[in-house]
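Fold this sequence, please.
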Amino acid sequence: MQATLTWLDLTASDRDKMRRVLDLFKEQGTLDEMGLGSLRDVLSDALFPGTSYIQTRLRYVLFVPWIYQRLEARRVRSGDVERAARAVEVDLIGRLEQNEDARGIIGVVARAALVRLPSSLYWGPLTRWGIFRPQQSQGWYHSHFDALVDGRGVVGRADDPGVIWSRDAHWHPRMPEAPKGFPGEASFAFTHDEADFLRGRIEESCAGTLLAWLVRNGSDSPAENVWDDPDALRAPGSIGDTLELARRFSLHVAGIPLLYNLLVAERRREVLDQDDGQAIDALRRALAEWARAEAGDSPYEPDVLWDLVVRRGGRLPHHQRVFIESWSRRIAELDPASMADDPRLRALGAERELRLKGGRARLANRNRLVDWSPWSNIRPMDFRMDFRWVRVRQFLIDLHGGFAA
């Protein structure tokens, strides 16, 4: 199945970037071909809790409560709230388009056909950052809407068995009021008070994370790459330790998808008689460049990551751990120039895909070889995890822009 972006519509520049990402990460993604996605997500959540790649601009975190507060004031009933909220969210698209800064509007092409609405995409930060105080799902909120609006007691059980919901105010009491004219008028620009409120929520709910550090100590011009951002690099104590762990892991495993795609390109040439010579040469160059960078860095210690995964309650399947540790041991034994052709590394990559994908493994399935797209311009950085920095960076620009307003 070809991956698409039909439900999340971004700007032309964003779409170009996402198309490139989709070219690199077909199906469930190159990272997931090798089963690395869950480790990436653990580190992403440790650094930037509440964030997601499918989010765009930060002020949606305020738009969503404002929309619902408006519906509460109108005393819309539970059976109608989902439809009513959807109508406002779709209408918001056109309102945002009227601004000079219209980057990152969700649904700008899909309009009424939009499937994933902003309220769905941003419910995570609303709960994680303590803005929606019951910390329950959007569905729970819809089903309890009447009782919450009427001020009646609601069913005590939360989404999870054994969890009791508190009857405190469901939106944070210091939530800024919607601007006059909203939602008929809306923009992505924060006021100072809005930025101050959101910074406070993040600092309180995400203390000890890089996100909390940067909302206080970052700027409205963060670096393109998190590893080059001076504010991130001066993060203290355990925050800096987590960032360094993420940096080291992202470099260490960047060679895995490079080698995997080299194997696929060579297999296509062998099985399909495809002329993928340019792609093969580009992947070999990128792999050699990565190997030199990896060899010049500090020794990688996988146990540090395993400890973090366990502390955060993440899953650490035995076969995933064995795969990473086998990769680590083998590349430590090799000269950088020999990594692309090492039989043991090649076998490790092929066996990993077969274990995860079975009959759908690209290296063992002619039909899946056909839908792989070769490319000739690739860099090791294209395969490094950025842990949602591309989204967090825009969030920081938006937030700190409010303090300068």
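The first helix runs from residue 12 to 24. The chain has 20 helices and no strands.
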